Known about the structure:
Blueprint: H1 3-11, H2 18-50, E1 54-59, E2 65-71, E3 77-83, H3 89-105, E4 113-118, E5 124-125, E6 131-134
Parallel strand pairs: 3-4, 4-6
Antiparallel strand pairs: 1-2, 2-3, 5-6
Helix pairs in contact: 1-2
Amino acid sequence: MHFADIFNYILRFVSITFCGLFHLHFAVCFICIFMFENLCLRDISVYAGYYGGSVFHYHDNCELEVDAIVEMPDGAWGAFEIKLGEEQVEKAAKTLTSMKNKMVSAGAKAPACLLIITGGGIARIRDDGIYVLPITSIRH
């Protein structure tokens, strides 16, 4: 499905009322988030592929979801959450920590990195060891 198809699908349900304007605002926000997440996934795929890695999506039966898992040829892996705003970093960190604990308790190797990609802000390492990077600071 292409971006234009999704946009047209959403706009079909928007009427020209105050409520419709609210839904239009919601639709535009959804599209921005969708585009940002796909931009980040494309970048992650390009960088991982350069080093022979593979990119996966994680979603389990307990509704735990992680945007990207990168696995390298040597078995090392990292988990990535993609959040457009800084206000979502805390929730993303909880998700990454839960997934890491679940994987380690199931016998998997600990991740080499846990990383949250944001739309802006400053690059930093949180107290729990999770990296927070704006998309603009990710380079080859």
